[in-house]
Amino acid sequence: MTPTSFQKELETAVPQLLDLARGLTCNKISDNCKFIFSEIKNSDKKNFEIQQLMLKENKKKTPVLLEELMPTLQKNYNNFYDINLQIHKSSKKITIIDIRCFFKNSLDNNYKQTIINNPPLLHCKVPIPDWLTNKQERFDINWEHYKFKNLWKTYWARQKLKMQRR
Of 65, 106, 110, 146, which residue is the least packed, with the fewest Cβ within 10 Å? Predict the structure, then answer.
């Protein structure tokens, strides 16, 4: 990936992300996409806490078209280490994609020196719920937004595991 091909690569990756999500979830996912931009930060917190903070931050953001977000992304391109496309929320009418970026500045100095001139990595990700025990089972793409339902399902998944161990 180069700065000149960056937008084209993102545009190519979006349909791949949508197809991946459609294959794993039970939702009807719209091709009408808007985008938000997030930074992946180093943290000692648990995944659940990080996830809740990210959701809280993202609720405050206004989704925009990719063309509107590209100037910000292009400006930061040389400092990107890793770019993750992930569906933040989806409905029949609109899909909001979170462009999550991990910056080279956040890396350890020794490692940063070895990759300073490398282009960023691009990944499409669909988070799978912790409580999903059958990996063939389809799930709701918006599962992260249902905090109490997730806690309940996680509790019961742990109870199932305990019973299976006995």
Answer: 110
- Say what the pTM is: 0.84
Q: Which helix (H) or strand (E) holds 10?
A: helix 6-24
Q: Tell me the torsion sign for CA atoms 79, 85, 89, 94.
A: positive
What is the rounded distance in angstroms from the CA atom of residue 38 to the CA atom of residue 29? 21
Amino acid present at 145: H
- Is the separation of the CB atoms in 114 and 104 below 8 Å? no
CA 130 remoteness from chain centre: 15
Contact 97, 58 (CB under 8 A): no
Separation in Å, CA 24 to CA 20, 55, 82, 139: 7, 21, 23, 7
C-alpha to C-alpha distance for 83 and 120, rounded to whole angstroms? 7
pLDDT tens digit string along 109-139?
A: 899 889 989 999 999 999 888 777 777 888 8
Q: Taking CA 121 as the corner, what is the angle to CA 115 and CA 126, rounded to the nearest 5 degrees?
A: 145
The span from the CA of 102 to the CA of 81, in Å, is 6
